[in-house]
Design goal:
This is L-fucose-proton symporter. Pfam families: MFS_1 (PF07690). The chain crosses the membrane at residues 29-53, 65-85, 97-116, 123-146, 204-223, 243-265, 285-302, 314-335, 347-366, 373-392, 398-420, 432-451, 457-477. The chain has 489 residues and is mainly α. The protein has a single domain (26-222, 240-488), classed as Up-down Bundle (Growth Hormone, Chain: A). It is 72% helix and 2% strand. The chain has 19 helices and 2 strands. A two-stranded antiparallel ribbon has the order 1-2. The longest helix is centred in the N-terminal third of the chain and has 32 residues, at 26-57. The two termini are 26 Å apart. The relative contact order is 0.18. The model is unreliable at 1-22 and 228-233 (pLDDT under 50).
Length: 489
């Protein structure tokens, strides 16, 4: 297990003269983590929404993949607009502030959720796609503001660890979403078990209310002002190679993660895997997204500069064990005839997942707390898991596919912080470019859908391998850049 963490990898460049006096950042950071939770929750609801709309409108895999195309397409459009504005007239966040930007984004999210009711009333798939685009517009603005804010909100040397911690709460949202969403759509609001479009109205009104409540909380909170009224940040961030290469890594990572999550339910329902019904398979999505939560929170420990590095293995083991237990309990929840029940999976069935958690912790140890090295190791592990998922049957394929979440865990945080390292006043502009690359989530699901329609949904799981080959390269390149910077210092 590592000693001191690399203190330059993945941290924004902030000179002593420009670094704001933040004071105690614990409270503000806690507020920011709520944002990560809620946008993780609402994003992964798409994985439950896809089979729901596919059945309701009798869609092909490709047509169902347009859900993610509409949602993640908004990331490209809105981020491109943000980049063009910041390049020509200065960074909007530096002018208006992180807090106001976040509140506006949350209100837009609420508006997108509210549109699900008229979409269902009109039984219009196109209307649903429009509602998703508006919802994703709000999430895009949240991402542009909250990711760099979380990275900057504290000591630079812990930026990657801090973003992993925030992403851990994002994963808590993604873990709960399939369970909550599946129960609401297929049980609670399905009249007498008859799943219709009307079942979708109330859940999304609830989600919209949650976003409005969070907007009030953020608006009333005292968040530190960072880079507001300072440098405009105008100019071109493309001068930084770590950002340009990082944009490609974000595009491929998000595309792979979203596509895999989008078709996991169909993958588990395949007769050669488990043959489960959709509402049963949706429960097991919690192991995919819960694995991401385990990896991110353990990654936060592994990549934090600490005075007691020898205790990190213990802290990580305790964290992982507690989160496995949490996922185990969450997936046991059932609602039958409006009665809450607990139906626990025999623990012996969970052994493959526990083994992969142990392998994930071992990978952190091999990476010695260096974000770029860990990125490379995890990418190579994902290539192996995808091959096993596509070529093997039954439980071997099942747990290989679900284990992908564990090794996807640190991808976003490590790529993001490596990409904005040394950007200085261009950090927010660079953030908008990275968020723009979330458009990968719009491209990959329809592409995987085409492969699934032409061959088999299992074979489609070979498509994301190209993503992880490139990300492994980016991790290797980033570590060389960091080493060269140290040598020159």
């Amino acid at each position: 297990m590592p000693g001191a963490v690399d203190t330059t990898a993945g941290s924004p460049d902030r000179s002593a003269a420009s670094t704001p006096q933040l004071g105690n950042t614990t409270g503000p950071f806690a507020v920011i983590t709520l944002l990560f939770f809620f946008w993780g929750f609402i994003t992964v609801m798409n994985d439950v929404l896809i089979p729901f709309l596919k059945g309701s409108f009798e869609l092909s895999y490709f047509q169902a993949g347009l859900v993610q195309f509409a949602f993640f397409g908004a990331f490209f459009v809105i981020s491109l607009i943000y980049f063009l504005v910041s390049s020509s007239s200065g960074d909007p966040i530096n002018r208006f502030g992180y807090q106001k930007t976040i509140v506006l984004a949350l209100v837009i999210c609420a508006g997108g959720c509210a549109l699900f009711s008229p979409a269902a009333a009109n039984a219009s798939y196109a209307f649903f796609l429009g509602a998703l685009f508006l919802l994703a517009t709000g999430v895009t603005i949240l991402q542009i503001a909250a990711n760099p804010y979380a990275a900057i909100l504290g000591k630079p040397e812990n930026a990657s660890a801090r973003l992993n911690l925030a992403q851990g709460f994002n994963s808590l949202g993604t873990t709960l979403a399939p369970i909550v969403g599946g129960l609401l759509l297929y049980k609670v609001f399905a009249p007498e078990g008859n799943v219709t479009l009307d079942a979708i109205k109330t859940p999304y009104l609830i989600y919209g209310g949650m976003f409005l409540l969070l907007a009030i909380v953020v608006g009333l909170s005292k968040l530190p002002r960072i880079n507001e009224g300072g440098a405009s940040g105008s100019g071109n961030a493309f001068q930084f190679p770590q950002l340009v290469l990082g944009m490609g890594a974000i595009f491929l990572y998000v595309g792979a993660e979203v596509a895999i999550g989008s078709y996991l339910i169909n993958f588990m329902a395949h007769e050669d895997v488990m043959g489960w019904e959709e509402h049963v398979a949706s429960i097991y999505l919690a192991y995919y997204w819960g694995g991401a939560m385990i990896g991110r929170l353990c990654g936060a420990i592994a990549m934090t500069q600490s005075d007691s590095p020898g205790k990190k293995p213990l802290y990580m083991a305790i964290t992982a064990a507690g989160l496995v237990a949490l996922i185990y309990v969450i997936t046991a929840v059932r609602i039958e005839a409006n009665v809450l029940e607990m139906d626990f999976l025999p623990f012996v069935e969970l052994i493959p997942f526990v083994v992969m958690v142990a392998l994930c912790l071992a990978a952190f140890a091999i990476g010695r707390g260096r974000p770029a090295t860990i990125l490379m190791i995890f990418s190579l592990s994902l290539i192996g898991l995808l091959v096993v998922a596509a070529l093997f049957d039954g439980k071997v394929a099942l747990w290989a596919a679900l284990g992908i979440g564990l090794f996807n865990s640190i991808m976003w945080s490590n790529i993001f912080t490596l990409a904005i390292d040394d950007l200085g006043e261009h950090t927010s502009q660079g953030s908008s470019l990275l968020v723009m690359m979330i458009v990968g989530g719009a491209i990959f699901p329809p592409l995987m859908g085409l492969i699934a329609d032409a061959t088999d949904v299992r074979m489609a799981f070979l498509v994301p391998i190209v993503s992880y080959v490139y990300i492994a390269f980016y991790g290797w390149w980033s570590q060389r850049r960091i080493s060269a910077k140290h040598a020159a210092a």
